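Batch manifest, entry 17 of 40.
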Amino acid sequence: MKRLRVDLHSHTWYSHDSLLKPEHFVEACLRKGINCIAVTDHNEVDGAKAVARIAPFKVIVGEEIRTRDGEISGLFLKERIPPNLTAHETIRQIRRQKGLVYIPHPFAAGVTMRLRTSDAHTRFEIGSAYVEMDDFKTPAQMIKNLQKGTLIGRKTNVLYPATSLAVGRAKVLAGHRSEEAREQRKTRINIQRVWTDL
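Output type: structure tokens
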């Protein structure tokens, strides 16, 4: 059976705290030997779908969702789940899509959200922590194989989280979280898809 190196928490420039374009994201995965990755952009699935369209490896479409009670991540999603719901309603929406639920930052200190783990925002952080495990076809099989997997990781340079925090603040001030900005990002990726289809 094929072995995977699975990074379960990563972000593209569709997140407010990352500048990593999908093509650079894929290059970083290939360079680090990551052949399965969960893209969990903040309150967005379009970045994960953009990576899935160009990656020659397995991509899990996910989302790190801001709820009224803290952040919750969903994996194997088909559609975006809106932010600012209760934790209970967010979990219900993830399960409605037959997705998996996890808490992205359960032990993080100094985090403002109450429900607070390679949390990759830059190409250097991808693959900092991953699970080596058997391949899977379904979410249930992934959970089963994950239990027998081997966790591999290293400490992240303190400059990376500081950089993503600064990027996040700048992008939010520039209107990244607005619905208008979200629609512009979506249109941009649709134009790119049409262009490559011609």
